[in-house]
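Project outcomes to date are best conveyed with an example. Our students and postdoctoral researchers have been running inverse folding experiments weekly, and each run begins with a structure described purely in tokens. The record below, which covers 220 residues, was selected by the lab manager from last quarter's runs and is presented without edits.
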């Protein structure tokens, strides 16, 4: 990787998503909503963990968090095992040992070919019936802002990403085309009760991200 690009990516969180402690309330509410798809006793891996808000708030067994920026580890919970590496490198996790792999605003930062590699490795570490829980910006809902992020490489819609998962050996068990607003910077309320109220709405205004929950297909 070119040195100038490496520097640009290293400053990504500082430029795009500086740490905001108010987001903890948002993630606490989101984790409470997503908990129904996460085994509270099974192992969990968060891809592209960032500030680790999801890993801190979710109830799971052994927790792993992956990111390339070692400076982010200080924000992660003490019960989270850090993996400072590229998601394209093999995971130091035993095959079939995890119940859940979680990713938020992650796969759009990779090419389709790279995404396929990551999904294959996630599938390897998941146990049969283990779940991939993914929150992604929905190009269908926010085409005008999708590439405002200079690290976005691939555009996904909820339908396109679901088909990608099916082609990669997963079975879709739940999908919400309109999950949360496109960005946490301004549109998602920071009060936990407001987030819970928003998630309870039958139709969510300003939604720009989708949620897909998929299971690793069992061997036949």
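After processing, the design step wrote out the following sequence:
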């Amino acid at each position: 990787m070119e040195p100038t690009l490496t520097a640009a990516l290293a400053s990504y969180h500082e430029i795009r998503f500086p740490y905001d402690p108010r987001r903890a309330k948002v993630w606490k509410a989101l984790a409470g909503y997503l908990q129904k798809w996460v085994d509270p006793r099974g192992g969990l891996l968060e891809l592209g963990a960032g500030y680790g808000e999801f890993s801190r708030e979710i109830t799971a067994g052994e927790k792993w968090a992956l990111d390339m920026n070692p400076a982010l580890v200080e924000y992660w919970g003490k019960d989270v095992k850090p993996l400072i590496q590229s998601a394209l490198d093999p995971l130091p996790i035993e095959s079939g040992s995890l119940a859940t792999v979680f990713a938020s605003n992650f796969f759009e930062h990779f090419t389709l070919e790279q995404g396929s590699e990551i999904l294959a490795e996630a599938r390897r570490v998941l146990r049969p019936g283990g779940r991939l829980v993914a929150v992604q910006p929905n190009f269908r809902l926010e085409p005008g802002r999708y590439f405002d992020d200079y690290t976005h490489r691939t555009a996904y819609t909820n339908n396109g990403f679901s088909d990608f998962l099916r082609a990669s050996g997963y079975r879709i068990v739940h999908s919400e085309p309109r999950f949360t607003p496109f960005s946490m910077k301004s549109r998602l309320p920071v009060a936990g009760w407001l987030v819970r109220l928003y998630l309870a709405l039958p139709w969510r205004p300003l939604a720009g991200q989708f949620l897909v929950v998929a299971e690793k297909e069992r061997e036949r």
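The chain has seven helices and seven strands. The mean pLDDT is 91. The training component of this project remains on track.
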